[in-house]
Amino acid sequence: MLRKLALPLLTFILFVLAGCSLAACRDVFQLREDIAQAAPAQASWTTERQPGLPNITIANKPVAVDLVGYAWCSPDGDKSCTNIDLSIATETVTTVPAGAVLDVNMPAGVQSFTIVNENDGSTGVPRAVPIAKGVYRYTVHCDWSSNQGKSDYAFALEVG
């Protein structure tokens, strides 16, 4: 009687073990797939500890740009993020000639950006400095690649 049960029992045990190891293999393959999908996101992050500044020039003269706030995730992969709001910007005004061409270059890793003219609320990348005399204030908002962070900047131009 024991011999008659031994073969079916052994077969049942082998099926159970095979099923468990298949489930474990599926979990391992899923984990590898999850890691493979996450790796490209962090691989495109910059290695800086905080967002870099945009490079803005007018007539080959650099414009002073202030970092006024950011939310930034560590490139170390430790899943820590920092949120800093510098509510008082140290606005430095750059004197520029009327109608001069504005050249805007964002740091590597910026996925998209928006420039807002705070004087009139217009958005977009201005191609030229206004012609009328006065001080023109701008803010810049950047979204960084693969959700590494967001950053805000300010600059002011004085047309003399």
Automatic annotation (TrEMBL):
Keywords (A to Z) from UniProt: Signal
| Signal peptide (UniProt feature, chain positions) | 1-23
| Superkingdom of source | Bacteria
Q: What is this protein called?
A: Lipoprotein
Naturally occurring in which organism (per UniProt): Paenibacillus lycopersici
